[in-house]
Amino acid sequence: MSLLTSSCYLLPWSKPAQIHGYLNFSKHSKLLRQECTTVRCCSSRSWQTPRAQHNYYELLGVSADSNAQEIREAYRKLQKQHHPDIVGQKGHKYTLLLNEAYEVLMKDDLRRKYDESINQMRIRLGENNTPLGNSTWKGPLRPQALFVDENACIGCRECVYHASNTFIMDEARGCARVKVQYGDTDQNIEVSIESCPVNCIYWVKREELAVLEFLIQPQPKAGYGVFGGGWERPANIFTAAESFKKQLRRQAT
């Protein structure tokens, strides 16, 4: 659901928690809806970009703000590596996908429409266009929110043990997540952060929360050629959020 200037809030904990600041949303992002979008290519055939479809930027291994030269170099490198003349028939479908990605990203109008299509995720907004995350809040809203990087979580349950009203264990994913922001006392939350052996609990700005919680959810992964399907999510959630913000900027211009 791709990919930010960083500002930090220091909290009065005895141990500084990890802090990230992203996603300073503007009026241009009031509602981003996920839906299937069809873009007509110059070859008169169409392609669709539902959630399960491949991300062209990830396919080419480039960032969302890459220029034409970077896209061209990445495309040529991958074509050489996976061309059927080199790897055999198994590379045929993959090179077709590379051709499709290259064709779209190298044309300004198609790229703009594609960027719009992959940014069409639903974000609930509160007052002053502040995104609302999946977790709920206890008491008044605060500038900072808790976020668990589920990629780094090892399922030790320490945070749940020390602050069970704030954190829950997602048995299906095998990791913890935030259920209620500030569901426990500040002291209990501090202890839960201290007890995390892998430092996967972050303090983030409240307005970041919706996108971070959305991006961390596993998304269906389409299979093609010799590659299988399954589920996936960004390996680095904060880099993914940064890429998403850049795409929003492109869309707003």
Quick tags:
253 residues, alpha/beta, Alpha-Beta Plaits, Helix Hairpins, 2 domains, two-stranded antiparallel ribbon, 14% strand
Over all CA atoms, what is the radius of gyration? 20 Å
Order of helices and strands: EEEHHHHHEEHEEEHEHEEH
Beta-strand percentage range: 5-15%
CATH topology of the largest domain: Alpha-Beta Plaits
- Return the CATH class of the largest domain: Alpha Beta
The main pleated sheet reads as: 3 strands, mixed
Pfam family, one: Fer4_13
Organism: Arachis duranensis (Wild peanut)
InterPro entries: DnaJ_domain, J_dom_sf
Protein name: Chaperone protein dnaJ C76, chloroplastic
Task: Describe the protein's architecture and organization.
- Residues 55-118 form the J domain.
- This is Chaperone protein dnaJ C76, chloroplastic.
- Pfam families: DnaJ, Fer4_13.
- It comes from Arachis duranensis.
- This protein is of the alpha/beta class and 253 residues long.
- It has 2 domains: 18-26 and 126-215, Alpha-Beta Plaits (2-Layer Sandwich), CATH 3.30.70; 34-120, DnaJ domain (Helix Hairpins, Orthogonal Bundle), CATH 1.10.287.
- It has helices spanning 56-60, 68-82, 84-87, 92-105, 108-118, 158-162, 186-195, 209-215, 237-252; strands at 18-20, 38-40, 46-48, 136-137, 144-148, 167-170, 175-178, 180-181, 201-205, 219-220, 231-232.
- The strands form 5 sheets. Strands 1-9-5 form a 3-stranded mixed sheet, covered by helices on one side. A two-stranded antiparallel ribbon has the order 2-3. A two-stranded parallel ribbon has the order 4-8.
- Helix 2 (68-82) packs antiparallel against helix 4 (92-105).
- The protein starts with 17 loop residues before the first strand and ends with a helix.
- Mean pLDDT is 73; it is low at 1-17, 21-52 and 121-132.
